[in-house]
Amino acid sequence: MLQRHWRVILYPLGMIPAGWLVWQGQHGALGADPVNVFERSLGLWAFRFLLACLALAPLRRFAGISINLLRYRRLTGLLAFFYASLHVLAYVGLDHGFDWTVLWTDITHRFFIILGMSALVLLIPLALTSNALSMRLMKRRWKFLHKLIYPATVLAGIHFFLSFKTLNSVSEPYLAALALLLACRILPKRRV
């Protein structure tokens, strides 16, 4: 069932955290600073899906999982872009009330904001070309373009770390996972 209809099942599952955050926000369950919690939670989900996207190839390679996990890269990548877009929208709309003067100052002067926005900019062409038509038209250039997932995830990871300003119990496991996934990328492939 999952092999045949995985998109119909997994895309809605990926939207559950966003729906849960909206529900919590509407019912006053996000704490004393709901905008901050909402915005950070969306960013965290974006980073989780980026890490999931990077984890699929090493899982298949090192864990010897026989199902084709790589088919889920598009799903996790698009969900990462969805959550990153919502994260930025919450930052622009809820946090700053669409005050473009303040936003411009933030985007041009605050380093961790610059890194986060840069990560989102790198994800835009990936989201736009995550379809079969783009793969056919771009051929080898499509693979080259989609390697942008690595710098985008690194920028998102630094943005994530700098938003906490210190290593802590929340940031450490995610940054360790990112380091491990990047290390897996540079390890030589096993010859069978």
Automatic annotation (TrEMBL):
<dbReference type="InterPro" id="IPR013130">
    <property type="entry name" value="Fe3_Rdtase_TM_dom"/>
</dbReference>
<keyword id="KW-0288">FMN</keyword>
<dbReference type="InterPro" id="IPR022837">
    <property type="entry name" value="MsrQ-like"/>
</dbReference>
<feature type="transmembrane region" description="Helical">
    <location>
        <begin position="109"/>
        <end position="128"/>
    </location>
</feature>
<keyword id="KW-0349">Heme</keyword>
<keyword id="KW-0472">Membrane</keyword>
<keyword id="KW-1003">Cell membrane</keyword>
<keyword id="KW-0249">Electron transport</keyword>
<keyword id="KW-1133">Transmembrane helix</keyword>
<feature type="transmembrane region" description="Helical">
    <location>
        <begin position="43"/>
        <end position="63"/>
    </location>
</feature>
<feature type="domain" description="Ferric oxidoreductase">
    <location>
        <begin position="42"/>
        <end position="156"/>
    </location>
</feature>
<keyword id="KW-0813">Transport</keyword>
<feature type="transmembrane region" description="Helical">
    <location>
        <begin position="75"/>
        <end position="94"/>
    </location>
</feature>
<feature type="transmembrane region" description="Helical">
    <location>
        <begin position="173"/>
        <end position="188"/>
    </location>
</feature>
<comment type="function">
    <text>Part of the MsrPQ system that repairs oxidized periplasmic proteins containing methionine sulfoxide residues (Met-O), using respiratory chain electrons. Thus protects these proteins from oxidative-stress damage caused by reactive species of oxygen and chlorine generated by the host defense mechanisms. MsrPQ is essential for the maintenance of envelope integrity under bleach stress, rescuing a wide series of structurally unrelated periplasmic proteins from methionine oxidation.</text>
</comment>
<feature type="transmembrane region" description="Helical">
    <location>
        <begin position="148"/>
        <end position="167"/>
    </location>
</feature>
<keyword id="KW-0812">Transmembrane</keyword>
<keyword id="KW-0479">Metal-binding</keyword>
<comment type="similarity">
    <text>Belongs to the MsrQ family.</text>
</comment>
<keyword id="KW-0285">Flavoprotein</keyword>
<protein>
    <recommendedName>
        <fullName>Protein-methionine-sulfoxide reductase heme-binding subunit MsrQ</fullName>
    </recommendedName>
</protein>
<dbReference type="Pfam" id="PF01794">
    <property type="entry name" value="Ferric_reduct"/>
</dbReference>
<comment type="subunit">
    <text>Heterodimer of a catalytic subunit (MsrP) and a heme-binding subunit (MsrQ).</text>
</comment>
<feature type="transmembrane region" description="Helical">
    <location>
        <begin position="7"/>
        <end position="23"/>
    </location>
</feature>
<keyword id="KW-0408">Iron</keyword>
